[in-house]
Every structure is written in C-alpha cells, then in structure tokens.
From TrEMBL:
It is found in: Membrane. The keyword GTP-binding does not apply. This is ABC transporter permease. Residues 21-208 form the ABC-2 type transporter transmembrane domain. It comes from Streptomyces corynorhini. Keywords: Antibiotic resistance, Membrane, Transmembrane, Transmembrane helix. It is a multi-pass membrane protein. It comes from the Bacteria. InterPro entries: ABC2_TM (IPR013525), ABC_2_transport (IPR000412), Nod_factor_ABC_transporter (IPR051784). PANTHER family: ABC-TYPE MULTIDRUG TRANSPORT SYSTEM, PERMEASE COMPONENT (PTHR43229:SF6), NODULATION PROTEIN J (PTHR43229). The chain crosses the membrane at residues 21-38, 50-72, 93-111, 131-158, 170-189, 218-239. One of its GO terms (molecular function) is ABC-type transporter activity.
C-alpha cells in the first residue's frame, strides 16, 4: 500500500505543473459547450447526459495516456528510474499508483462539465443514482489506469510516445462508445467494442444520470473492473520483459 500511495502522491505533485493536466481541465468544458450547442439548436433528443459523460471519460483517457507515455521518461530524466528498477520492491505497484492519479482529474472534469451545462445552458442535470454514478467514476478511473498501463511498455520502446497517444485517442472514443452508444455502431464492430472497458463505463454512467432504475449495476461495475485488471496484468508482464531486456543489454539510458 505504501508503494501505491507513494506513486499516487508523486504523480499528483507532477500534475500541478503539467501542461497536459491544464489542457484536460480546459478542453473538458469546451467539449461540453460544443456538444450542448449542437443539442440546443437541434431537434433531436436531449443530449445533456452525453455532453457530460463524453468529456469526462475523454479527459480520463487522454490524461492516462499522457501519464503512461511520460512516466518512465520523467523518471529517467529525474534520475529515479534506475533506482526503481534496481530496488527489490515491485515497480508495478508504484506505477499503478501514478496511473490512478487520473481518477481525481476525472472527478474535476465531471464537475466542470456539469457546471457548464447548468450555468451556460440552464440544464442542471439531476443525479437520480448518485451511488452508482460515484462507483462508476471510481471504477472506470481505475480501469483507465490499468488499461493505459498495458500501453506503457509500448511507449517505452518507441521514439515518440506522442504519436501513439494521438493514435489511441479518438478511435478509442468511438470504439468505446464514449461519443455515441455502442448500439448505433456497425454490427460487425460491436463485439470488439464490448471488450473495451469504456463501452461499459459510458453506458453505466449515462444510465446513472437517467430516471429509470439502473439494470444490474454491480455486475456491470465488475466487468469494467475485470477488463481494467486484465489490461494492467498484461501490461505489467510486458513491462517486466522490457525492463529485463534493457537490463541485459545495458540500454536503459537509451530507451
């Protein structure tokens, strides 16, 4: 637990001066303005829940990708990466703590989007299922951290992590049902969407903001958690292999 908390607090200190954190906190309300402007002057159904859920999950994912892509690089620049690799304590727990710091930013993004919807458009969205919503935000944030950890070894081996981060943003939003529900995607791609944790998290979050009772919230939360845990498990296996390789070849400072 101490390793996890050390990683969590360390990343929060870095986040205070990170331009990526600032960018996420600025773009989340801007996305809400765009989505609700379309809804305001359209004739379709009320999209307030979508305009709040989509920027929140987009903020979670983009910041998780940023942390996964820069965490190891920052450690190397600070001169702490070698010590982490040489230490007997498992590196994966510290890394997970750093990744889970994005949960707090996700909560901030949700508050921003909710306020923009109310203050600018007068759409004060009620939360009929606050327990489900809170649990969904926390579990989806943890799954985001775990899944992004799957990509960290790949970022470590590539010359430009930014290129991969951009590749895994908007296509992942569509595949994960963040921008539109999975049900409206082509039938041939819907099975692939169901193995993306965001598709379950987005559906459950939208349901928690709707009036009717939420169907099977515990089971759906477990699916999100299991998918995130699977991503984290595979990611840590790959990370240990990458670290083992750079140990053998003596190329840690060049990765």
């Amino acid at each position: 637990m101490r390793l996890f908390l050390n990683g969590f607090t360390f990343q929060l200190r870095l986040a205070r001066t990170s331009p990526d954190t600032f960018q996420v906190c600025v773009t989340a309300p801007l996305y809400t303005l765009i989505f609700l402007s379309i809804s305001e002057y359209g004739t379709g159904p009320d999209l307030t829940a979508y305009a709040i859920v989509a920027p929140t999950l987009m903020s979670l994912w983009i910041l998780a990708l940023s942390v996964a892509g820069t965490a190891l690089t920052e450690d190397r620049d600070l001169g702490t990466l070698e010590g982490q690799i040489a230490a007997p304590a498992p590196m994966g727990l510290t890394f997970l703590g750093r990744m889970c710091s994005v949960v707090l930013v996700g909560l901030v993004a949700f508050a921003e989007t909710w306020l923009v919807a109310g203050l600018v458009f007068g759409r004060w969205l009620t939360v009929p299922h606050p327990v489900v919503l809170g649990a969904c935000l926390l579990v989806t944030g943890a799954a985001t951290a775990g899944t992004a950890g799957l990509l960290s070894p790949l970022f470590m081996l590539t010359p430009s992590a930014r290129t991969l981060q951009n590749t895994f943003t908007f296509p992942f939003y569509l595949l994960g049902g963040v921008l539109v529900p999975v049900d409206v995607l082509p039938h041939w791609i819907q099975p692939a969407s169901r193995v993306v944790f965001l598709s379950w998290g987005a559906d459950l979050m939208r349901d928690s903001l709707a009036g009717p009772a939420v169907h099977n919230p515990v089971g759906r939360l477990l699916v999100v958690l299991l998918l995130g845990a699977a991503g984290y498990g595979v990611g840590m296996v790959l990370l240990n292999r990458v670290v083992g390789r750079v140990r053998r070849t003596g190329t840690l400072s060049q990765t």
